Amino acid sequence: MSNSNKTNQVHIGFLEESPFGKIYLAVSPRGICRVSSESQSITQFAEEVEEIYPTMEIIFNNDLISELITKLDDYFSGRQHNIDFPLDLNSMTPFGKKVLIACSKVGYGETLSYGELALRAGSPRASRAVGTVMSKNPLPIVIPCHRVISASGKIGGYTGGLHKKRLLMTIEGITVD
């Protein structure tokens, strides 16, 4: 049964075409809360979101998140450099939130090391912990963890696979070994 109280709803939908195929999106009343190109279907994605927000009603409707879909499409086509949209990071620890907020401020085409991101997040000795947070980023692309590289200048890791990280970096004109 549909609930008209939008403060208790998470809206899900997807960007149909991207360099990675479908990208599934979830938006809570606070902001975007999940991005996935790994989910096999909208049903699987809805189940993943429901695990994080068990008390919320999950509503599938691309029209309700059309602004976010447009921003992502514009990013992939080079018309927009950053995806400016409210963030919901409530599923993260306080440290994770600090790291992701710091990462969200890394500019288009810019890279920095895990150690530099740790410094920006106020925890200069936590570069390994920053790497762990990056591997659990619930908002890849929106929070540009693909812009974080190893201190040696190498590409580092990426949860979605290095081919995706390289592609995102190529879109932004970033070259690394």
Keywords:
177 residues, alpha/beta, Double Stranded RNA Binding Domain, Arc Repressor Mutant, subunit A, four-stranded mixed β-sheet, two-stranded parallel sheet, 6 helices
Summarize the structure.
With 177 residues, the protein is α/β, with parallel strands linked by helices.
Mind sketching the topology for me?
Elements: E1 9-15, E2 23-27, E3 32-36, H1 42-52, E4 57-60, H2 66-76, H3 94-104, E5 112-113, H4 114-120, H5 127-135, E6 148-149, H6 162-171
Parallel strand pairs: 1-4, 5-6
Antiparallel strand pairs: 1-2, 2-3
Task: Give a structural overview.
The chain has 177 residues and is an alpha/beta fold. It has 2 domains: 6-76, Double Stranded RNA Binding Domain (2-Layer Sandwich), CATH 3.30.160; 94-171, Winged helix-like DNA-binding domain superfamily/Winged helix DNA-binding domain (Arc Repressor Mutant, subunit A, Orthogonal Bundle). The chain has 6 helices and 6 strands, in the order βββαβααβααβα.
Please count the beta strands (DSSP E, at least 2 residues each).
6
Q: Over the alpha carbons, how many angstroms does the gyration radius reach?
A: 16 Å
Supply the number of helical segments. 6
- What is the name of the CATH topology of the largest domain? Arc Repressor Mutant, subunit A
CATH superfamily grouping of the largest domain: Winged helix-like DNA-binding domain superfamily/Winged helix DNA-binding domain
CATH class of the largest domain: Mainly Alpha
Percent of residues in beta strands = 5-15%
- The backbone outline, from C-alpha atoms, is globular
Which regions contain 5 or more consecutive residues with pLDDT less than 50?
A: none
Count of spatially separate domains = 2
Q: Biggest sheet: strands side by side, in what order?
A: 3-2-1-4
